[in-house]
Design a protein that fits this description.
With 105 residues, this protein is mainly α. It is built from four helices and two strands, in the order αββααα.
Length: 105
């Protein structure tokens, strides 16, 4: 196997492990594999629509499907930067891909 194939397999393994952890109870705050978590507020005349929030880490990790890195440490650094807000384009793409209205989030 060449180096690119190994990197792709490692990234696929990382994503598969992440999804398995989410599916089988690794993190309580994530629901439906990073789907937006709908939080309903008390219904009042002024406030009748639910608020949506996204899991930023899930959005950043989903970008691994279309981004390549030299090694695992570069991947981890990218995810950390993304969670800190240094890659807003990733979050916007996630919102667009999920079909969400960015103004409501």
């Amino acid at each position: 196997m060449n180096q690119k194939s190994v990197i792709v397999l490692v990234l696929v393994g990382i994503v598969a492990t992440f999804l398995a952890i989410l599916a089988f109870g690794g993190r309580d705050e994530a629901v439906d594999f990073g789907e937006p978590v709908m939080q309903e507020e008390a219904t009042t005349p002024e406030n009748v629509s639910p608020q949506a929030k996204i899991d930023v880490r899930a959005a950043c990790e989903s970008s691994l499907m279309y981004t390549t890195f030299e090694n695992a440490s570069a991947t981890e650094a990218y995810i950390a930067e993304c969670v800190e807000g240094k890659h807003p384009d990733v979050i916007q793409r996630y919102i667009d891909d999920m079909g969400l209205d960015g103004a409501m989030i």
